[in-house]
Fold these 2 entries.
Entry 1:
Amino acid sequence: MSDKSLSEKTMVVVFSRVLTSLIDLTTAVVIARLLSKTDFAVVGYLLMVYEVARYVATLGFPESIFYYFEKLTKNYRKAFTVQTSVILGITGLLSAGIILLIMFFADSLITKFDPSVRESIKALLPIIAGVAVLEIPTWPVHNVLLASDRQKEAGWYQIITSLMSFMALIGPLVLGYNVETALYSMLGYAGIRFTGSIIWMWLILPKGNLRTPVGNLKEQINFSIPLGVSALVNQFNKWADKSIVAFFLTEQAFADYLIGAQEVPIIRVIPFAVGSVLISRYVYYQMNNKKEKLIDLWHKGIQKVSILVIPLSIFFIVVAPQFISFLFESGETNYQNAILPFQIYNLIILIRVAHFGSILQAYADTKGIFQLSVQLVLLNVILSIPFTFLFGIVGTATATLLANVINWVFTIKKIGGHLGIHAKNVIPIIHYIKVLGLSIIIGIIIYLLNQYFIFNDLLSMTISFVIFISLYLLFGSIFKVLNKSDWLNLKSLISFKFLWK
């Protein structure tokens, strides 16, 4: 595959992931604006439980698709997909059991919530369990499409399922129905996704054996479990700070933190989207001892990701007051307490310039991924408890940032060990500093302009974005932060040429 072809495929996946994350953000915005703060806390807690249960069930098996589709012949791809989906069907049932078990411990987990709120959560958990049973077996589909070099279909699958999920949850709420009806609608969506995914996979996968080679099941389990447990631990880490807030503080503070403690999704997905495209190439280079090409591709990926992720992160940190006010506040519902946690939390994105786990997966170092995940969640919990107790939700966000930075340093060292290079060379640091420095300077300019020229939230963000991007493109070209290929990629993105080529 040529670099141009790889770049176009990457743009397809990034575009679909960004669009999907935009749909997810819209879902959160609409829910926050339609529901009271209390009902928003209920829905947020239920979705948190579901996400944790889903990661308990998936256990790294969807990610194993990338490794084994490259390792096995095409004759076994359908069999491997069936094997993976059956495993997830079984673990999906187990996750539903975990969700139902939470019903019996809810009173102890959210002691500061109002008793009526606790009862609502317990009554709605069985519906969430049903969604888990139907949706979890479909989780490998996106990875199967990517690993089969069907990036456009993978993008459309993600967009369509996200739109269906959005309509299922938001539709009933917009029509005036209650949260329970909306969740039953989600259950219907999960059933449609389950049926459609099975039919699609059966049609597109090449004919071949319906059983994997002898020993493959055991090998897959040994590969996936450490990877999956690390993903589960990462998910616990994602929700650990929120669980601590729910335990120590009220449902009102929890609702504020749900708004504040989120990385802007349209930015966060970029490195993971790029990594999902490149991981098969990493595996190929690693298996064929082409370390120089692997390192070169790794550095190119970081350079392309950083010129997008870093400036966008700085921009949203600067316009956070307008962003939160415009999107989430309506009537008497106020989320001003979420602004500073949001700004602190989004500093984390500045170190997310690559999907670092993809390199470790390419070297089959799932145990290393697991160790780093455990380390992160321990750091987060150890720091978040005292910080939350002393400083409220601002302290929680700060603790989460510190935990991520410390763990990132250890991750860089481990990747350097696999690549056989010094940790300081894992990231193209000069390029990173140039992009970060330029973004911060322009961010300061935008901040000062917003102090002197006050408009409504939407107009302020629009003007700020136009000025920010114009200055970034101008000075990025002058100081060689952006090169000719970056401008060609920008032209392709604006024209959407990559979608129909």
Note: The two ends are 15 Å apart (CA to CA).
Entry 2:
Amino acid sequence: MSDFYKEFAASKTHVALGLGLAAAFAAANPLVLMCAAAGYVLGWVYLPTSKGFMARIQAKLELADKVAQNNEVANFQARREDLLERLTPENLDSYNALARTCSEVARNTPGNLLINGKLQELLWAYLKMQAMRQGIETYLAETDEADIARQLATVNSELETLTEEQHRLRSSKQSLRDTLVQHQKSLADAKENLLVLTSELTRLEHEIQLLRADAIANRNSDFLSAKINASVESLQESKSILQSMSNVEELSLDIPTAAGTLDFETKPREKAEKLKS
């Protein structure tokens, strides 16, 4: 109810009542001032809760909420397209295949926005993990592990030949050795993370394929909703695993509540199409 009073305070009707009261003060006529004051008070008492005013404000609030939801969905679509544009053709094919599977599940549960929203959440998690895995693969491909090992061996040999008087050079070489050791550890972590991500992606692919089988075999939306909820809950385990990794960003499941209205099979922007050509 307080929202209606706030809206009334900012409305043209309130401004008009306020101007009328101010004019009555300026007129310095007691009767006019009394009538204006009474009208102002009655306006505050009755107008904010009148059916017409409440209906108008309710429509305004609903429109503002719809605009906000549309903006959230548009921002989500932009983030999704940005990730899709970065995928290699092979990864994009894998994503599109899983998106088609989600579309098939949705077709077997027509109009169920709750199920569609959960499917979008699973597909978004898959895309995020794909992007993470691709980033690690790029890092490993661009890093010469053998060269790092050679440099470390060389530095260790040089440290054995340095005298105590060469303390500045020794300090520099020790720092270089520590950095190379950290680089080796980073590579080892990246390799393990790559295996974990690949395992999680494969598990998610099978989760969604099983949902497709359930949707075809059992068209009960409550049954399928329970299955999807279990799959989404399992993502929390994935999130905990991924948060413990180095070299990867946090798995974010921040999708808008209205994402269930979106299509699963998206058409990436021009850059992603060029990747496939």
Note: The mean pLDDT is 77.
